[in-house]
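Now for our target.
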Amino acid sequence: MASLALICLLAVTAAIAESAVAPGTKPNIILLFNDDQDITLGGTTPMAFTEKLMSTGATVDNFFVNTPVCCPSRTTMLTGGYPHNWHTTTGGCMHMDTDNDRFRKSIFGLNLQSLGYTTGQFGKLLNGMKEYCSEKDPLRLPGFDSYLTMCNYARYFENTFSSNGTLYKTGTKPEDYLTSVIGNHSLDFIEASLQAGRPFFAYISPHAPHVPATPAPWYADKFSDMKAPRTPNYNYSATDHHYVIRSQPILTSDEGDISDALFRDRWRSLLSVDDITKDVVSLLEKYDQADNTYILWTSDHGYQLGQFRLPSCKLQPYDHDLKVPFRIKGPGLKQGSHSFVASIVDVAPTIIELGGGTVPEEMDGHSFASLLMSDSSAPKDETRDRMTIEYWTLGNVIRNHHYIDMPNNTYIGIRLVNDTHNYLYVEYYQDVKEMKFTDKGFEFELFDVSKDPYQMKNLYGTPEADDQLVTELHEYLHKQVVCKGQKECKL
């Protein structure tokens, strides 16, 4: 490990030294992007230091992902493009077409480099990384001057990384713990950037709390008395929901115990992510850059642990899978909560604007940076009250004897939140390969989330449904799920 750390540090220093960008007054930007971190089940609670730190910044209360699964959500975040503009019916990375030059030229790190930033990426990027992790002639990751990118998933020891195009492997010693390795290399990059006096962007993406959520050995005994939250929709039989949900058998006590054990390990694994935040802040303070740095904290999607009898995973359109934290701390922000709606597709445009750039017209997302600023005079029509959802089934996926995904679990939807409405509307489709969003769905769901925060009562087709609202949401949704670029993809 000592030799790996030294080699990587030398590579980081060399990458920064070769940068042609002169020092300036640009703010540094750090994105902490966790894997499977929910908000509705208390997924942020174990990160006590990060919670306290970010409480002095701004929070977007209604922040959602556009798709509740890893690779599509990460593709959306990296490019500022909706999943439908990366969708392929011939495989890809969970239906995302990412193994091509179009994707590689769309990674927003390139935009930050053009703005004068030294850029670094550490941890998980996508689920499919074969072209970057090949033992022979691996591709270099575009958009990042320095990187330590995970090549394998679902384990926290004995990992393989691509470090600036060279493969390295770690072992089973405590210092090989995945989150610690990611954190240490992030710190090396940040310190080298600070020493060089150059503005930097650090994309820190731990694997935690993704399964198996292996905790660091020094945190393995924490939270031993905790259980997954028994929310009202825990082990609830929702017979009026779509087929995957209404067909679920009861969650047995043994299956509940498995979910509880995973809940504890998820929390334990996040303690090491919290340690990264502590060390990053200490480093910024050492170089007097804490007040000149934006720190953003979010996740690729939420999670479920017994909700609607699903033992674990994501893949559903409900708030426990869609709603994730978005907190930001940095110069010029209006502290406190912000009620507008934003989503993962907006993250790259927002970071570009924070770095002083103009959002490219080809991006689908819109920056909400101006809405966060204390001196913002953004007109009311720039605030947003809705976001769209897209999901293509992964087929028959089983967890603990429960089907958490099926071929009929392809859907599009919309999440609406404003002063008068708080709704979730979803349309389900049968055939992932042939389905076109212009077709008519075969099942529908509508929830009044203000009255039904756990989405337990489907109002679609009942006297309680607002048919005019349904029509409006349907028409808006079908325009958004084929849109492309800033002009077509509305706020």
Notes: Residues 253-286 form the longest helix (34 residues).
